[in-house]
Write a structure and sequence with these properties.
Layout: E1 8-13, H1 36-48, E2 53-56, H2 76-86, E3 91-97, H3 103-116, E4 121-126, H4 145-164, E5 171-174, E6 179-181, E7 191-192, E8 197-198, E9 213-217, H5 221-230, E10 233-236, H6 241-257, E11 266-275, H7 279-290, H8 295-306, H9 334-346, H10 350-360, E12 364-368, H11 370-382, E13 388-391, H12 398-413, H13 426-430, H14 438-443
Parallel strand pairs: 1-2, 1-13, 2-3, 3-4, 4-9, 9-10, 10-11, 11-12, 11-13
Antiparallel strand pairs: 5-6, 7-8
Length: about 450
């Protein structure tokens, strides 16, 4: 009998919480956003509840207006290394940009985290959409969308070869013979490409998972093609189950086109739940958060998504759909299209739109009692829209506790969420195979996984 498919559930940790006004909420731990002990405690709570991973987003620029919100960025690998020391099983996923890092340094960092954590590392691969990042790296301008993805493809190919440059049995470690490593099983990669020249090999052995799990975030056409080729998990944003189902089906079809097994690519939309004992209580909670929104921040975020400066407009007037410029590089971004879909579907006022985006920057926000949240998760999971979810608590730590105390028990009772870990690595949690080294596979006359 085959084992029943189970939900993947990550805890997406964002300083303060995912609602833009979370830090102002009465129960928010707003003074602890730079306290590693606070994040270690959150990770231990998620691990005690047998969640799959904690996830930290990142970006190489100050992209948001910190005058009005706790929207700075913690460097993920530093933070995750400290969390690794405080946990033993939960996965550790951090974001790093292919546009503003070098493959060799990134390969070392993530391989080190995988060794440090005994096989729990995951790399969320992004190309960086914030144009202001360029000025932090001495570039005259931010690379265009298509160029960023071309660089990303070469970047991942190089990193893969570096992670595989030591075969699994290269380490002998035999004091009696005096041999530490079989150098015939350690390979230079000698890569010369359009963007990179890297000799290799990596200067540490292959990590416990073979390679950290490849995660991707981005749903543009280029993003989908990139994910179908490389990703083992995809973080995505959807407002409706219909949109999520269409994305799920498209990705699986594209994955097959690359000769890959679609069951080895996990699709994980974001969900940000406001949980109350009744629908009315949950609605009041969400309204309380929205009442704390600062329009200066909200309109700046909306401008990032749409290119429109709506300062001075009547917030209770209709959103000026006719002012949006469809063409150009902004139109390629997945979040731009998501906002456009909300506008076309719901015809919101400006205030209503910024309230929708304030909850989780375009991810699915749902308010209700625990049964409603569990029913919705089950419907998406069993209806071909998701393999699991990035859980995005509106505020910390209360949003985490509300989900783990009231929703997770229902999911476990229904047989959808695990009762215990069945493996030790992030690949084990996600049900992913451990890939063979490309060099070992080539030597055996085969192909890598």
């Amino acid at each position: 009998m085959s084992q029943r498919r189970q939900l993947i559930l990550n805890l997406f940790i964002y300083p303060g919480g995912h609602h833009e006004a979370a830090w102002r909420f009465r129960d928010a731990a707003y003074k602890q956003v730079l306290d590693i002990g606070f994040y270690q405690a959150l990770a231990r709570r998620a691990e005690a509840e047998k969640m799959d991973a904690v996830f930290f987003a990142d970006g190489p620029a100050l992209a948001d207006d910190v005058r009005y919100a706790q929207r700075f960025r913690l460097e993920p690998l530093t933070w995750l290394s400290a969390i690794a020391a405080a946990t033993s099983r939960i996965g550790l996923i951090g974001t790093a940009s292919t546009s503003y890092m070098e493959p060799y340094n990134l390969a070392r960092l993530y391989a080190s985290l995988d060794h440090l954590s005994h096989g729990r590392a995951g790399w969320n691969i992004v190309t960086t959409s914030a144009p202001q990042a360029a000025q932090n790296f001495g570039l005259p301008e931010h690379p265009p969308h298509a160029e960023r993805y071309a660089r990303a493809r070469e970047f991942v190919d190089v990193v893969t070869q570096l992670w595989d440059s030591w075969e699994d049995d290269a380490v002998i470690n035999d004091p009696a013979s005096g041999i530490f490593a079989d150098t015939d099983r350690i390979h230079p990669i000698d890569h010369v490409g359009q963007y990179f020249r890297v000799g290799g090999p990596l200067n540490l052995p292959r990590s416990p998972q073979g390679r950290p799990v490849y995660v991707q975030a981005g749903s543009s056409e280029d993003g989908r093609a990139f994910a179908a080729r490389y990703a083992e998990a995809i973080f995505t944003a959807h407002q409706t189950v219909e949109s999520a189902k269409a994305f799920y089906a498209d990705i699986r079809q594209q994955v097959r086109g690359f000769g890959r097994d679609p069951d080895h690519v996990k699709i994980l939309p974001g969900i940000s739940p406001f949980i109350g004992s009744t629908q009315a209580e949950a609605d009041r909670l969400q309204e309380e958060f929205n009442d704390l929104i600062q329009p200066g921040y909200s309109l700046a975020q909306l401008r990032q998504f749409t290119g429109l400066d709506l300062a001075g407009h009547d917030l209770d007037g209709p959103f000026p759909r006719h002012l949006i410029e469809i063409g150009g590089p902004r139109g390629l971004a997945s979040r731009f299209q998501l906002v456009l879909d909300i506008v076309d579907r719901e015809r919101p006022t400006i205030r209503q739109l910024v309230q929708r985006l304030a909850g989780a920057r375009g991810h699915w926000v749902i308010a209700g009692p625990p049964e409603k949240i569990a029913d919705a998760i089950q419907a998406w999971f069993e209806g071909g829209a998701a393999d699991g979810f990035n859980v995005m608590p509106p505020w910390l730590p209360g949003g985490v506790h509300a989900f783990t105390d009231h929703v997770l028990p229902l999911l476990r009772k229904r047989g959808l969420a695990r009762l215990d870990y069945s493996g030790a690595t992030l690949r084990d949690h996600y049900g992913l195979p451990r890939p063979r080294s490309v060099f070992a596979a080539a030597g055996a006359g085969g192909t890598s996984t």
